[in-house]
Write a structure and sequence with these properties.
Chain lengths: 417, 417
């Protein structure tokens, strides 16, 4: 995975000014015997999460974990559980995925999403998809259809569809369409949502004073907020382009602060799941960059970039699932801004239980980010509710040049087959 | 690279029934002192190339090599040289890339292409692109624009664009559009071209008798050939879908022979280049699967899948460039059908020349395929003309379960900086 590579390379280590490692051992009690087990780890974006919105982000992570665990307990596939978590994250107007995603240069929402099944290594993805509320559902359906084998006349089924073709495929497969204006304007309900939307589209200097003024302006508007914000910021962009002469523009291009844009650009959401049999799945979904060019596809849609899942094999005792946030193509950037969630699991018979026909699945998990903060949630089928957390870089650490790593261990017990 | 992995894995080795290795040492004489050096390796598709069409494929490979070498000799970037080779391959109606690409289910051409610069590690790609004669030119332009740094207001430039958005970006950047009917019907000129088009779209049993009858039918048509062939084969597909009952269809889905479809599906073209300074670049372009779903994007457009280029670095004495053909997502397929071209180069001072202010660039190159055949061409700036070759699996070897590997070595001399 590109993010892993970036963060663990020898060259990168010299830039790491702070590393925070917290081990949380989540050893839990006996599982409920009538239900299947499993574990899920989700994140609602690596970027910047203000204290004022922390509660909202934690809440959506908690709901996403619960949805995945409900699926696992009902015996669903790991891919269906990870999809359920992503649907919840996409439906939140606070995340840059699905409903309320960033708007592109034309004021449209175009989403990327992908999913991978660790058992079959099958993959499904959509890119630059408009008009569908839950892009991850289309990615999962592509994965499912791909697992059925070839189409009539020996045709290979698609696993990655983009744009209008992806939309058509989804509708043809019974996935309902969603009017673009509903996806765009869903954040007018609360002042908090309004505030975030402004922040996402703040292409000028994001000083507090300036931001406060914009929020006051917006509060007067009741409807069509996203579009109004888009138009206002588009005008700002056009003004910036006029003001920046060729020379200044070239200079600014290379010097422009990541903070101006990236706090709104890295809100990719993701989830990783392991079921009681040790099958893993991973998924990722993103609305992409604010004011991106129409048709732009980011890493969330790309094989081997946005997510990876691989069950234990002959040469590998671990099942592994990874979901990333950030851009793998920014080789020339000074700092790498991104985040990652990872889990790996292996079977091990606990000594005390070896006589009781039970086997323990050891699940190690971690989240890591070079952005200022990352909101995560995790839950096992043995837990009553999900744990949520906003991980932050230590005080004084510089985003893009520092990395925070936190994680834990969870033991799941399941009957021996 | 996925193809490399597939072909060199321990599990795969048991399936390899034949390995052919041919080393061709191309040590050449002194370079022309007034011109810059370099080396190019191209391929016009891994699939099935009949003896009757061998000449055409070799000819386009030769022209592609010459175009790249002309660029290198003129001091162009490795990325511009590799683009020049790809443009030539795309312009041929015999390859499944650019002009005359496979048609999708709606009878449209949608192309994928990508390019990577080994010096900057920058990447450019387009997917499901219609209406542009040379998709690789758009990919190269995306790469070039990406290397200029951020856009106004700190926006990150796109490196992967798809569909309508990719088309708009290309036209906005001065790349001329090409009417779809010109790209579709360009093969009516010669009988040979007609024959190939029929073969590409033969979704029924490709027996000689049947094929001959179809060709006879087509010869009566003078205009709009591709569209007619598409409509005829679409009808066959619909008939096949009616005839195949649920049970039979499911069975056929899993059993359908690769030969029915893949001889027309793996005609991705690619090139790898090293310039006289050791900078490498790689590119790939494909029209994708015949009768694919609109919006389908294949590996030719995907980062880390279709091509890779990486200059020598602190921990790596070799510059490496790779271009692949085949699908990385077919984890469940019985056999892996694909091809790859690779070059790697390193600086080494030849003993005799160390006193003459000259340095030798050692270039090792190879092509490998699991398909029945692969047409390649290669040339150094010191050669008068390109060498071309159609590599075939040894007699009796089964496509998808056997691999052919051939390659050579080339020494380029250049003045010490």
């Amino acid at each position: 995975m590109t993010m892993e590579k970036g963060m663990s390379s020898g060259e990168g280590l010299s830039q790491i000014s702070a590393v925070k490692v917290t081990a949380k051992d989540l050893e839990t009690k006996q599982p409920q015997k009538d239900r299947r087990g499993g574990f899920v780890l989700v994140h609602a974006g690596a970027g910047y999460h203000s204290e004022s919105k922390a509660k909202e982000y934690k809440h959506v992570c908690k709901r996403a974990c619960q949805k995945a665990i409900e699926k696992l307990q009902a015996g669903a596939l790991a891919t269906d559980a990870v999809t359920a978590a992503l649907v919840e994250l996409e439906d939140s107007p606070f995340t840059n995925a699905g409903m309320g995603s960033n708007l592109n240069l034309l004021g449209e929402i175009e989403c990327d999403a992908s999913i991978m099944d660790g058992k079959s290594l099958n993959f499904g993805a959509v890119g630059a998809l408009s008009g569908i509320k839950n892009p991850v559902s289309v990615a999962n359906r592509l994965l499912c259809e791909g697992q059925k084998g070839k189409l009539s006349a020996g045709r290979i089924p698609p696993c990655f569809l983009v744009g209008e073709g992806a939309y058509r495929w989804a509708v043809d497969h019974g996935i309902p369409s969603c009017p673009p204006n509903i996806m765009t304007t869903s954040r007018v309900d609360s002042e908090r949502e309004t505030e975030r939307k402004v922040f996402l589209f703040a292409v000028g200097s994001p000083s507090n004073g300036c931001r406060g003024r914009r929020i006051a302006l917006i509060r007067r508007q009741e409807q069509g907020f996203s579009l109004a914000a888009f138009k206002r910021n588009k005008r700002k962009l056009e003004l910036a382009e006029r003001v920046e002469t060729d020379f200044i523009q070239l200079k600014k291009r290379r010097q422009s602060s990541e903070k101006e844009n990236d706090s709104g650009t890295l809100d990719t959401v993701g989830a990783v799941v392991v079921d009681h049999e040790g099958n893993v799945a991973a998924a990722v979904s993103s609305g992409g960059l604010a004011l991106k060019h129409p048709g732009r596809v980011g890493q969330a849609a790309l094989y081997g970039c946005g997510c990876w899942a691989e069950n234990t094999g002959a040469h590998n005792p671990y099942s592994t699932a990874v979901s990333t946030s950030g851009s793998p193509f920014l080789a020339s950037e000074d700092g790498v801004l991104g985040g990652v969630i990872v889990l790996r699991s292996c079977r091990c018979s606990a000594e005390a239980d070896s006589s009781q026909n039970k086997q323990t699945l050891l699940v190690e998990f971690l989240w890591s980010h070079t952005t200022e903060s990352m909101c995560v949630g995790y839950m096992s089928a043995q837990d009553g509710k999900a744990k949520t957390h906003i991980s932050r870089l230590p005080p004084g650490a510089v985003a893009g040049q520092s990395v925070a790593i936190e994680g834990g261990v969870c033991r799941l017990e399941s009957p021996v087959n």
